[in-house]
Amino acid sequence: MNIRICKALFMKDLKNCFVNKNVFLMLALPVLFGVMYKFLLGDILKGATGSFVIVMCIIMTISIVPLNVLANMVAEEKEKHTLRSLMLANVSATDFLLSKAFVALVLMLIDGILIFLVCQEPMEYFGYFLIFYVLSSLSVLFFGALVGLLSKDQMSAGTLSSPLMILLMLPPMFSQLNEMIEKIAVIFPTTSFQTLYLQLSVQQPFFNQETVIAIIVCIVWILLGVIAFMYGYKKKGLDD
């Protein structure tokens, strides 16, 4: 891995993201929902604001950005056949992918911080929030790269990522409605973030069975994502 090349690619990819209307819309949606829930529907939701709002918006961010934005970034490069040119400029596929994954993580952090500020959460939660958020984000990040790797173009990337986004968003949102859904929801990293963050507002010891399971779920998803991506890259590659 070449640090100088990764830095150059990171700056290029970050700049391209802010001029890409589709990427900008996907990044703006969770923040706009936070504004709508917090300020426009605050009187209706009453006690459901605060932690409820930030959890729903962050679940949306974790589901959308890696599986849509990152997948489209990788698929766009494949569609334009620009990786071959980058390789001729001594850019390895590892440099290429790491730069895009890091861009996606930075964009997610920007989104998360904006949502945290919009929801006006206690600042003493901020450090814990970032830890839980990054852990949950990494759980999905490599799967987003894998979707882009398996897609021929941006359209197919959107087609592949849509059901996965729904799969990540729905279980934690409906986990309180049905006991079976609650049991299934535990295996998703979006539910892990919900469990970990909501535990902060409970006046009890942080580490219990639920929070330990949530952390283990995130670690397992990260490992599975790395293994799946490495297998997919070996079988398909980027420059095909």
Automatic annotation (TrEMBL):
Sorted UniProt keywords: Membrane, Transmembrane, Transmembrane helix
Residues spanning the membrane: 21-40, 52-75, 96-118, 130-150, 157-174, 212-233
Principal location listed in the UniProt entry: membrane
UniProt superkingdom: Bacteria
Protein's cellular compartments: Membrane
Membrane topology reported for the UniProt record: Multi-pass membrane protein
Residues covered by the ABC-2 type transporter transmembrane domain: 50-226
Alphabetized Pfam families for the sequence: ABC2_membrane_3
Organism: Massilimicrobiota timonensis
Designated name of the protein: ABC transporter permease
